[in-house]
Amino acid sequence: MTTFAADQILSEEGAPRVRFAARERRGALLGLSFLQLMVIGAAVAILLITLFVDVNAIWVLLPICTVICFFAVATYRREALLIIAVQAVRYGLRSTAGQTKFRRDVWMRVTVASLNIGHAAQAAAAPIVTSRFLLPGALGDVQIVQIPGAGAFIYNARGRLASVTVRVGSRAWALRDKGTQEGAYDGFVEWLSSLENLPGLRETSIRIRVDRAASNELRDYLVDREYEHQPQVSPELRHEYWTLTQAASKSSMGFSNFVTLTFDTGILNSAIRDAGRGLTGLAAVLKERVAGIETAMEHARLTPAGWLDSDELDELLAVASDPIAAAGRRTGSPNQADLTPQSPPPVMAIDETWDALRVDESWHQTLWVAEWPRTDVRTGFLEPLLYAGDATRVITLQVRPIATHTALAQLNRAQSDMETAATIRLKLQSRIPLTHIREEENLAIREHDLVDGFGDVQFRGFITLSAESRDALAKARTDIEQASHPARLMLATLSGQQAAGFVTSALPVPLEGE
């Protein structure tokens, strides 16, 4: 969790610099999570009960309980072994139940004629469920709902979540100006602080897609000019031109930016009821929220480029699920005349392994940011990840607003926990490490920021890599790991959670219980 303030340190180039608060102790008590405390408490309770039942049995259970307590507090690469074991057991159960491998219809089209809308006057304004998308494994399914005259939203009925996705752009050339840099930074900070005041907002996901073979503009331009002016082009010249553009497209990368807003419909119940109930009321509320968030984006120097409709969401889901096949559809063949986007394939084969996910022709691997930079970094510190290698990737930054009273309560608990840990170390005549001191300093800075009125948010970072084979995926991971060092990030694989991680990172789909 990090608080944002308007004060920033300017580098020699004039770019603002930021620092992420250190979070060494993420547990409920003395750096231990609730699950770890439960296991340790159960082991101690067994020993106490044994003392009253059979004192001699204590010598048998004592080594066992000692091993259990050691296993509960031990870590591997700064992650609790107990948590890793729980994930392994969960993956094993899903694999046994057949939830890691399946071939089925993923898209289910819904025609307007099949809907029981009611009166004709309501049909013109009522939102329309255009399709359903089945998520991998046991994650359930979601509906894509089109709002007439506006965009579409994805509705997760089981999780009572709804998300809208807006395509955004930015004027990169304008950010060379020092004053514009500072204005963009201040606007972004204000936007993050304002998320707390947006009722029902659960999280905001900022995604940057980097796709291969995206430079077909020259070929498209030639086809358009042929239809418009009917020039006399020989087949030999056409084939040579296509060969050159196809060779260039293999080494080119295309960038697209999206912002996904996820709302909790349970919190919005009263507003939905006042706006007409059901999907109609939800659509009205979401239209109001999107209008407000677009204005806030403009203050942060972002350019909203349109609220995605149902067809665009279907295409985005298809491209994200199988970017290799999508790249083939984009490049097409030299004689291909129809360049309109193809409908997403309804049937998909999905195989989930411990550390990867395969969807039809594409292999995916999702990494998460286990460690954010500990020192001051410039605002563009993620830039090396965008240009690392030539594999398709999605870089996702999720921001969850935290109410001020909740943030203050968490801060007080963390400070009390730090003081208790320091007292125990002093009684044991153990030194207080520098990490402990740095975190205490960060807690004090967060408290000042919260008291001064700045918002508190929680960050989660994900990177999904996509390739055509296991070997290409391994190369892509090597490239992205090398790029993470200058960005001062520590990346880790989502072991046993690749399906959920892929949906969270690459797809604009709201998930329950994230």
UniProtKB/TrEMBL annotation:
Keywords: Membrane, Transmembrane, Transmembrane helix
Keyword Membrane: yes
Residue ranges of the TM segments: 27-51, 57-76
InterPro entries xrefs: SCO6880-like (IPR049978)
Protein name (Swiss-Prot/TrEMBL): PrgI family protein
